[in-house]
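Working notes for the structural subgroup meeting. M.R. asked for a predicted model of this chain before we commit to crystallization trials. I am recording the input and output together here so anyone reviewing the notebook later can reproduce the run.

Input as submitted:
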Amino acid sequence: MKKSLGEKMAARLPEGGRASVLKMENMSGFEDEVRIDFEVAIPAAATPAGDRLLLPVVPYRATWRESFRHTRRTSSVYLPYLVNESDDIVIALPNGIRIESVPGATGSQRSFSRYSLSAEVEAGVRLRVRRELTILKNRIPAEQYPVLRSFFDQARAGDEGQVILAIEKK
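Returned structure, recorded in token form:
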């Protein structure tokens, strides 16, 4: 199971990304929250932009990233299961790189969903990103599709925020 989960996480990373499972909790219970700790390595995760680097605030692709792009829908949206993704991402930066700015906290709440994202600098050399996405209903009527689409557009925009990194001059 560890190998399979590591492969699934690696598939969500940019090309060349690697993931391994460090710890798994509550994998056999039906009522408990499942917790999986990954160690992830992404070569060239940041993109050069002049004398700065841009780093995606969320380093992996959401499974729903391409969903809900159409402007209209004539039938209800059925989601296979309720979701509560709670990510606590810690990114350790290499020596000589410092965080210049992080995106502001963002969030969105609807009757059927919640999303929040916050990023903060820890000890000047680590980035901590907290992200939560919750889906509370399995069926969204077609007339609420514009609200659903708007919610996922806001979540997508939050996930695609950029952290600006500076290269320290020697």
